[in-house]
Amino acid sequence: MEGQKSHSAWLEKEMSQSRAQLRWVSWVRPGWSQLWAWTALMKRHVVYPTNETLRDSTECGALGFSSTKSQFQFSEKAGVAVVWLKHDLRIDDHPALLAASNHNAVVPLYIFDHRIISRFPEKMIEMLVLALQDLRSSLRDKGSNLMIRLGSAESALQELVKEVQLVTTVYAEEEVEYGFRQMTGSVKGTLEAMPSAPNFVLWRTPFYDVKSLRDIPDSYNDFTKLRLPITLPLPPATLTGGEMELDWGAIPTFDDLKEFVKANPCKMDESWASTKEMLTETILMKEILKPAGRNTINSSFRHVQVQSKRHENSVFVKGHSVGGGTSNVLKALAAYLRYLEGTERDHYWKEVHERMPYAESRNGASFTTLFGPALSLGILSRRRVHLEALKYEKERDSGFLSSFGYSSAMVATTVDSVCSMEWYSLVALKSQINDDRRYHIRSWRWKGYLIQYTVVGHEGPATLLVHGFGAFLEHYRDNICSIAEGGNRVWAITILGFGKSEKPNVVYTELLWAEMLRDFIIEVVGYIIAIVVRLWPALAKSVVLINSGGNVIPGYSSAPFTKERRTSGASWLGAKFLLFYLRLTLKDIVKNCYPAKTERVDNWLIDEMLRASYDPGVAVVLESVFSFNLSVPLNYLLDGFEEVLIVQGMRDPISDSKSKVAMLKEHCAGFIIKELDAGHCPHDELPDEVNSIIREWIESLSSKLPVASFK
Q: What is the pTM of this model?
């Protein structure tokens, strides 16, 4: 009960400091100047919390707390509690540890499961080791310890429950990613099959005071109108159980973990693993990195040199990522918020200042670059970051929060970033509990960003459907199941920046999307996919292009290409005007792309496109329109592929279909071209006809491939 009392005192202190403040807080887009920060046109509102509520998720049975009248309602629980840690490596603002503090003893547990650790790049593995070392130290200070196990989560938890015998409850954070949700479900099933099965409790750290995921509007515009209160973080709990005579296990070293990953019996093929590590621009420019490429090489060298300069107590673990423990990351966050003050206060501020030119790849992108990895490991919670940003803002403004926006661009960037992350987490969770579709939506995390996808079919050749610019996986609404019914496995993905996938503040390029798709690819469609199959041919046996972008340039033999892109004030302004124009004229534009069957442009399609146009970050995606580089022609990208199918709607209003088809026939011998009486989206305008073409194409390929190719 000591944890409850300390929280009540802390909460009352936080509330007393905020009662005199304005209730309403607004903020603007990240990276705007102070002048823009005071502009009320684009502001979005949220209620500053006056009390904190963590409620049950009715869909998943997640752990919930209620702080009505500043008191947590707990029931006394006997026995030992196990807190299975995954992406929540902290004691601050940890609902499960606070709940577990009511048990007789607590065993915090981290399991190096191949399904988790093998997905981390080396930088994240190093950050993970340091975070666990700090977490063990923090837990010992609170009367507990950190148990370490290597192997499958199912076996590790089963053995621990058998060893301790008095385990009554296992706490686990609810997952967003489909793969981890499956793993959590498998662990739950394993424990429930035991003779004395412990309770398996899922929990979340809700950012907003949301009663039910099903009540969340699909539109971010409608969501902000609800003005939901943002919950306050919880204080660390006082724990017991550190004195238990158990094998707590040693934290493996970075080198140990690298060997552990290599020993994974289910690891990906070595050729695919090496392919994944190779940068796209490295492949495209390998033929021309001569004198003209020196600037790029020197730039990369300087980049590495800056990264290598570190203090012994640096807040940067590797490169431009803040890491270590919670205390370390909080100090870096404080330095980041003070960045624009211009006066060096400590080495934390100096370190952040040195890395900002590299982290700020575009206005407002620095927060995710610096703190994204720490947030993905759960070293800090989003609502802790939000509260720290508001505290700093109040200090700047003599204890007040203005209703006209934040006075600091760094505060605006920080708040906007964590609110955006939370929105896409809610979207992903809600999408996965809806069961009114012919196919289930899943979530996959790429470089910390949530990507939506679906899969239909369990056997046969694998086909990946990739949409065009501005669309989403549901644009294949009448293709996915039909192609799968032909005896195929069909995957469809919503790429980063579109649909209900996350729209982070990054510089979007066709190479960024190509890199995202390379881990997802076998059979593909679209211009960006053409880049994928050119750069990583081992990932695809064939390619189908449906009204693809890109040109045909005879005699093209090299790729003077760079990933480096620059955004400007003109592109920012252009994106704003383009977004406004698209919202006003969307239905007419889309109907123009469906000349043969305009009735296919139904309310659902338009509503979903409009919904996505209000998502946080959508204007940043539109800026990419002004920096696209489609200079690498299709004939170069598809060179060497014997099996290429072109499906071309000949009434496409966006491109000259007749000229493109003529050039393909003349300069791309062996390509199969199907000309259809359709517009820009023949797969959705004439789904039956396109589905038949694709099924026949896959069947013809299947007869040429060994059976092992389909497994």
A: 0.82
